[in-house]
Design brief:
The protein is mostly helical. The protein is built from five helices and no strands.
Length: 175
């Protein structure tokens, strides 16, 4: 092999490697951007489901409480309106208010909020992974789209204020 042929083969090989790197890194960037777009929609869907589940379970619990408050006095009044033995109520099984709906509601709140948290955490991971790809070598030399992925975490006013002030003194759970 002549030296000029070796130089040409080496130049073609280097160009081929560079071309492969260009496509590989840009395809990875495109993949992460598309994943971020899909994750944003998943977060919206998760948030929507969270509030619908919590609201509807709370409505069922409230309806049960209202019905129980209305029906219980009628049941008790009907049982003892005949003036029979005052001790009869000790032997009878009176209707009890079932708190399992509230337990179910509390579990639903925790589960749905965990789903939202996980979806948002995944979004932040995608953004971090893409930023690392764009900022690290040699990928930064090849990636053409370096625009930021815009996303703001869904949070409460209280949490936002704590992050701003760096102070969280509110430890009273029932306030």
């Amino acid at each position: 092999m002549t030296p000029s042929l070796i130089i040409i083969v080496a130049a073609v090989a280097i160009l081929l490697v560079l071309l492969i790197m260009f496509f590989t890194y840009n395809n990875k960037e495109i993949y992460l951007r598309k994943e971020a777009d899909a994750q944003r929609k998943k977060i919206e869907s998760t948030h929507d489901k969270m509030w619908k589940v919590i609201k509807q379970k709370a409505e069922v619990s409230d309806k049960y409480r209202e019905t129980f408050e209305r029906v219980y006095p009628e049941i008790i009044a009907g049982r003892y309106s005949d003036g029979s033995s005052a001790m009869k109520w000790i032997q009878e099984a009176n209707p009890n208010f079932d708190t399992s709906l509230y337990n179910d509601l509390m579990q639903a709140i925790e589960i749905q909020r965990t789903h939202l948290h996980n979806a948002q955490t995944r979004m932040l991971d995608v953004i971090r992974e893409r930023a690392s790809l764009i900022e690290s070598y040699p990928s930064r030399w090849f990636i053409t789209n370096k625009s930021e992925i815009e996303y703001e975490v869904i949070s409460s006013t209280k949490t936002h204020n704590v992050v701003e002030t760096r102070v969280d003194d509110d430890v009273d759970v029932f306030k």
